[in-house]
Amino acid sequence: MVNLPRFRRRGLLLSLLATTATLSACQRGSRSEQPSGQDPATQTRSSVLLINGAGATFPAPLYLRWFADYRQVDPQLEVNFQPVGSAAGIRQFIDTTVDFAASDVAMTDAEIAEVARGVVMIPMTAGSIAVGYNLPGIPSGLKLSRSVLVDIFRGRITAWRDPQILALNPDLDLPDLPIEVCHRSDGSGTTDTFTRHLAAIDPTWESEIGVGMSLEWPVGIGVKGNEGMSAQMLLSEGVIGYVESVYARDLDLSVAALENRSGQFILPTPTSSALALQEIELPENLRAFIPDPAGTEAYPIVTYTWILAYRQYPDPDMAAALREVLSWALTHGQTLAEELGYLPLSETVVARSLEAVQLIQS
């Protein structure tokens, strides 16, 4: 398969910056592979079947591309996905106003109990959360220790030339600018992953500020979506925020080298993020997190991201089609995930996710 050119990846992300509520997954298509073992329902369908989903912005560039490319496999299936944030996606899924949802945080037992049709949680891909910033003349690689990272997002360090930041970066000519903290205002799985890490490295964070998809931040301005966070960092000098690494990479945002548990300062590369992901052991329900990986070369903030499907669908065609498109994404689509900057799933995780897909029935 031909690699997706960088300018096309950037174009998709810029389109996400422009609009997040009306994006359709039928924008592009380039693949023609046919999945093996196609369900009879998808072979005999004579009219276009529409499947609607909503949720996480973290994997949105990948999901939009997957669902668009799948039109070449099954022209009679259209999968629309609206990147509205993990919390909104879960809420719509519980309310049964969508056919599936996407979240960077697996549903809780209490949330699952609200869904009479049952829930299947399927890890589809993974990625890292970058801490990005906009500082004139300062490229990626600004070192932020664990204590400095927490103190910035708590509002205790308020200037880029703070002695603690200068001591970590003696070779950088940091500008005399105030720090403008940016955080998500919507219910966000990216926020959940980021604040889990802050709580893991600072014992007081969880008790005094909190962990979750939305919370009351002690400082900063709120924006919606990874695309909103990216736009804020592109437009405003002095900003620091957290964003899925694909957005940072393809929009050329500067990102910090974060201190990991071993005391090493690590950039969010595919290699360093994959090392962290290897430490996650998925339980039977496929719900697991790693807020502070131990590996010497591991980047410290990574997460899986899940598709949430119902166990029972009233329409057999929809159940069959959803099984097929998700199975295709977990097999053929993993190569595309890597090209777009996400972390491809291991063979073991792919096998377990494919088993979960088969739980989708009518």
Automatic annotation (TrEMBL):
Residues 1-24 form the signal peptide. The keyword Transmembrane does not apply. Keywords: Phosphate transport, Signal, Transport. Transmembrane segments: none annotated. Residues 44-330 form the PBP domain. Belongs to the PstS family. This is Phosphate-binding protein. It comes from Thermostichus vulcanus str. 'Rupite'. The gene is pstS.
